[in-house]
Amino acid sequence: MSEDDAPAPGAVVEPDPVGLCAFCGGTEEVGEQERLGVRVRVCARCTARFSAVPEPEPEPAPEPAGGAGLPPTLGQHSPEVLRHLARVARIAAARPFTEEDCPRCSGVVHVYRRTDGEVVRLAKEAVLATAVPAQDRWRVRDGRAEPAGDDPGQVGARLLHAVVCGAAAEPGNPRLRQVWRTHRDTASADDGLG
Questions:
Q1: Can you give the pTM of this predicted structure?
Q2: In the list 105, 127, 140, 170, which could disulfide-bond 166, CB 3.0-4.6 Å?
């Protein structure tokens, strides 16, 4: 049992009838103590561990002259950060699309290939297929974009980004208009920052 397995303050720990330490399960030098209002069996090692005074934290190392406020270099990151970055890179490489920003509205566009190799730019949002006209429905199958048409079994549909581009004219279809507004608002927010 590790230190993390120690009971939380206020937790009721029932003494073990066999004579084992209630914290680590050890059998050497086990004595009974009162902990949090309950009598429990605790070995000498756990008694020392839990009653030890914590060591003071070391003073921070002085920052080198001229380097104050600079972000760490990649080599200074922890191994966990490096593993996370490698995992994100693997996931991005495995995606069947690339992501780009629309130069007109700044909306996120997913760029797929069709089965014939042509490039198709789809809006990242999927919509309920029955809410949009059949000619505007697209789907992604086996990593390739293809027109979905009037497939009655299709629940969700993708849209060409050009149909819902925030810089284009407002669509008449209410569902398409909702996605269009999201892209228009993204463009407006980006204009306000620049």
A1: 0.50
A2: 105
